[in-house]
Amino acid sequence: MPAEDRVGRRCGELHRAGEAVDRTRGPLDAEGRMVGMNAPEMTAAGLVVGEDGLARPAWAAQDDLLREYYDTEWGMPVREERGLYERLSLEAFQSGLSWATILRKRPAFRAAFADFDPDAVAQFGEADVERLLGDAAIVRNRRKIDATVANARATVALRADGGLEELIWSHRPESTPEPRSQAEVPSTSEESVALAKALKSAGFRHVGPTTMFALMEAVGVVDTHIVGSHRRGTSGVWA
């Protein structure tokens, strides 16, 4: 397994299960369920029932920011180029970090990367990279920054062959997973492997199969909402 995919696998685990310990509610078990004195009401599938009566996975119930993201963004279809480029970039930046960290930094990322306009980022040079490396409000990782710039250029170039939307959505599977617990949520798929290969062939970086599966989840190409969660089947993509 390539190093990138080992990091990507951990990235996917963090994305779906959250931090190893939720400092406000207590630790999580091996399936991402909250345990301990402060554990909230949970369903048999390990979903957390919030004060609003809605069931969410544990990673989405840890704080207001994650809950809002889960309720309004995660898994909803994204088909426009800039939105897909932004999400691809943020998924790559998340490797080794919690998704909550990336969400908190998202406004700073948008400011630093020209609101993720591929045409603008494609023009970034070494001076821009040095500026980004000095920006404490984002994740200052040269490899990830370089990949984000390279991926902007690849996104622009890909327009001649149908564009980023067509490439990503062409890897929609015939059916979507129907996980009944966090343990049943996959971290990769045949389609994410193929998507990673296609993106790499088009010049994209930091796009391993696990990271690409997380992207497919985030933008609605697959629906991995746990059966019983209030978001299952709400994207309009899957019946």
CATH architectural label of the largest domain? Orthogonal Bundle
**H-E string:** HEEEEHHHHHHHHH
Would you report the number of β strands?
Answer: 4
Estimate the helix proportion, in percent.
40-55%
The termini sit apart by: 34 Å
Structural class by SSE content: mainly alpha
Instruction: Please work out how many helical segments DSSP would assign.
Output: 10
Spans of 5+ residues with little confidence (pLDDT < 50)? 1-14, 16-26
Report the CATH superfamily of the largest domain: Hypothetical protein, domain 2
Strand order of the largest sheet: 1-2
CATH fold description of the largest domain: Endonuclease III, domain 1
Coarse morphology = globular
Q: What's the average pLDDT?
A: 88
Number of domains: 2
CATH class wording of the largest domain: Mainly Alpha
Largest sheet composition: 2 strands, antiparallel
Structural write-up:
- The protein has ten helices and four strands; from the N terminus they run αββββααααααααα.
- It has 239 residues and is mainly alpha-helical.
- The strands form two sheets. Strands 1-2 form a two-stranded antiparallel sheet. A two-stranded antiparallel ribbon has the order 3-4.
- β1 and β2 form a beta hairpin.
- α1 runs parallel beside α10 (209-218) and α9 packs across α10 (209-218).
- The longest helix has 17 residues, at 142-158.
